[in-house]
Amino acid sequence: MTPVPHRSHADDLLSFIRASPSPYHAVASAAQRLEKAGFRELRGTDDWTGTTGGSFVVRGGALIAWYAPEGTPSHTPFRIIGTHTDSPNLRIKPTPDTGSAGWRQIAVEIYGGVPLNTWLDRDLGISGRLALRGPGGRTDSRLVQIDEPLLRVPQLAIHLDRSVNDGLALDRQRHIAPVWSLGAAEEGALLRRVAAAAEAEPDEVLGWDLMLHDIQPPGYLGAEREFVVASRLDNLVSVHAGVTALAAAATAAEEPDYIPVLAAFDHEEVGSGSDTGAQSPLLENILSRSVKARGGSSEDWSRALAGAFCVSADMAHAVHPNYAERHDPDHRPLPNSGPTVKVNVNQRYATDSTGIAVFASACERAGAPWQPFVSNNAMPCGTSIGPLTAARLGVQTVDVGVPGLSMHSARELCGAEDPGHLAAILGAFVTSD
Fold first, then answer.
1. CA-based, 20 to 30 A from 246: which of 29, 38, 413, 427?
2. Domains in the chain, start-ordered, CATH in brackets?
């Protein structure tokens, strides 16, 4: 059986995933946990002068949090944990009501790299946020989460498509509208349903960011329950580990040698090119402002950044037992053997020897294992926020991740021990050398 400390962490991870079906819910879940650890939310329009302790800023599906105890020198270097809150899925279009052949359906758009076959014949709910009309012409944002078997993308029966097992027999443009009722498409039907779930009136809704999620709860798999299976492991495993590490740093008896930072970006799965993505100045602006709020100068900001280091934590590929030839023959990570350090000399990952050394040192302090990962030369390599953060801030960065199977699937798998290993390593990374 999985050792008790790791099982406890994995249990908590499953609760976090269950409460976080969308990036906005993931941010709300993270904020709630940080508040319990003594952090407080700052808004961009607030006066941050003199702000110390644990703080966080929320912008949509992104959260930036940091811990700077009173008396921390303004030039203290940052230790940054970079993650992302979004996952590939199906997102509801602005005009959603559609249908065909007597079925009422919902129009959706593909978000990110979705293996569409994994979304077939699954019971789907709706989650995200609504933009509501508020008093005085202002707008308000409200989360919505419908964990009911409301929709389904039905697969064509094999009797009507004998070639279905020869490949993915799914037209990306025509056949992904989920069914949710019988009858002609009724304008406003979905709006009424989600508004009611958010305890709002339909005429209050001015816009939305809604998506579908698999309502099957996360859980354990295997003869010894040694695996975690869940939606959105990529990348809520890392967000949860980062929150855990940051909260632990803020409640530790010793003062940290660094200012620990959690940067949980949105839109990584589609290139990070938004005001909440890693390509934006969001992290740079917030960290710079935090230095000035503690009385720091531009020189202090430059010093804090020059001594900074970032661990970009995302999911990684474990060797697939049915497709071992797709992996590098000498780099075959396995679940429950520790997080991987991801290397790509073409800078799809930002790891270099210095980054490996920093991460390996944190692993030693945490008493946790790690594994190297390199893609097969014949396989295109994915990427993460690591190179973007390194290029944006000029900060040394190492890309790491928990190895798993079925990445980007509607339901993914990883080892039950590895999330706890990652949290322990990140905790060691943000507090000392």
1. 413
2. 4-87+231-431 (3.40.630.10), 89-214 (2.30.250.10)
